[in-house]
Amino acid sequence: MPMHAINMTGQKFGLLTVVERFGASPRPKWVCRCRCGQLTIKDGSRLRRGTVKSCGCATRAFISAARLTHGMTGHRLENIRRGMLARCHNPNSKDFPRYGARGIHVCRQWRDTPVEFYDWAWTHGYADALSIDRIDPRDGYSPGNCRWIPLSENVARANRARRQRAA
Questions:
Q1: CA 108-112-117 angle, 5° bins
Q2: Which of 48, 73, 151, 161 gives a 20 to 30 Å CA spacing to 137?
Q3: 146-150 and 130-134: which strand pairing?
Q4: Stated pTM of the model
Q5: CA-derived radius of gyration, the chain
């Protein structure tokens, strides 16, 4: 005995509203309008099970939001933060022996919440011509131990420290 397709016209499933049946196959497909305005064709059983909830726009938005956590990708400040993290927390970094292996770390606040680092930077004199410097070279990167200084001054400090260690 053949089963009759359930009429799903007008029903809502996630962001989709069923407009009409599509084709005459034994496995019904439905034309749906997504909340974003896009028309899409979906399998009826997948709609009822809840495995399909949009035309795909929700998935794209979710992936995009996951990738864009702070809006600073590619900005010099994000590159500085990533450099600190690599030096201090990535054993594969060429600079790890001089930082992370010596116990120098980036504070949890800056590691876990990039926006905290950006806020600190903007309120403590960040400019493109400056580089981040640890006031106490034996201590890690944290709001109380960092400042912005010209790169030439930072290099000169590092060279002086290297000469003192060699002497």
A1: 80
A2: 73
A3: antiparallel
A4: 0.56
A5: 28
